[in-house]
Amino acid sequence: MNEKDYFQMHTEWLRFKSCLYDMNTGLPVLPLVIEDIRKLSDDYGKVVVIYIDITKDIESLYGWQMYDKLIRQTVNSISFLKKEILPENTIITLTGVRSGEILLFLSTDKNGNILSNDEVEMMEKRIKSKIENELPGWEPNYIFATKVFRIGYSFFTKSPTRRMERTIFQAIDKARRIIERQKEESRLDRDLNLEYIIANNEIRTVYQPIIDLKNGDVLGYEALSRITNDSFLSNSEILFSYAVETDMLLDLERICRTNAVVHLPEKLNGRLLFLNSSAKGIYDPEFKSKKFENFLEEHYIPKENVVIEITEKLAVTDYQSFNKSVRILKDKGFKIAIDDMGAGYSSLRTISELKPNFLKYDMALIRDIHKNLIKKDLLETLIPFTERLGAEIIAEGIETEDEFETLKSIGIKYGQGFFIAMPENPFPKIKVKN
């Protein structure tokens, strides 16, 4: 065999291997372990299938790198449990390459005793607890109103009249249906919780100042909503992210806007009021009619002093109608800000077409900017772009003096964050001294 043939064969082998093994975790995919599962069934009769589903929402919200990392962490936790409570012959596999669906096949406990139903349930709880404890940064293991992972299980025994492959797939499907029922029950609970929050206005408003970094003058205040009841949806970010998936989003955003205006602790005196709206909420008929304008007039707030801050957690699919709705607001005299610039779907296309008044730079890209030249260079390149748009950059999430001074030195005019002032009601005092 010459060198060319060797490399060609090696390349084909790697391609073949990539179809059978997941490169992210090193685990085999299900078809590769069917014979091992068959042997487990031959040896012990009953086989337990434990199904762990890592939510796909993380990939769409945070990117594939974060999703892959979470899958690896979960697999590492399970591998550790194989040394503690799982038998050595436990089969760990994925439903497919790059899948977030992890499968465990086993028949006995660590000592080789056949598992009873109660013991399987206890084992499921141990696995669940271990994974939860090994997911730092994901506490309380919920993200955007969705559990990071769910777990279910089922059993199967070898049947003389059915193919083993179909028996295995039916058991997997049964475990998957258990997870789907968990999701549906959880969804119903969240819907009822959201309805209660809206109906009882269990929302209070706090205000965070946005200041001129050079002289400390207050440009305006961002109105932020806080949930007053102790529930799963008490985290505001989770609340709004879940509301986007329901038909209650407009009701929620309306009540938050109303609270922000009604509970203003003092007159704005020419300063701006930043009101958050989802991209979906921009289509609210209240914006197109005079209802919202009249409401502002009743509270002596000029619409020219109101900034509609658009958050883009989800992609804008119909740019034409979205741009039209934003233009209606601008034509009425409202100012526009794009939130989370540099995260989510705040694309350059969106920005260039909307021509916002403000670009709010995502806090993840502000963090430790004084130590990260790439972050610093990236922000510096945006300054000429925003100037051509006639917009201003607002740096969000400033938490340290080093971040503050770095942003000021590169020419960022406005900023907000805990270093400047915590969100409060009444308006908080500015901690930064001129």
Automatic annotation (TrEMBL):
Residues 187-434 form the EAL domain. GO terms for molecular function: cyclic-guanylate-specific phosphodiesterase activity. It comes from the Bacteria. PROSITE patterns: EAL. InterPro entries: Cyclic-di-GMP_PDE-like, EAL_dom, EAL_sf. It holds the Pfam family EAL. PANTHER family: CYCLIC DI-GMP PHOSPHODIESTERASE PDEF, SIGNALING PROTEIN. This is EAL domain-containing protein.
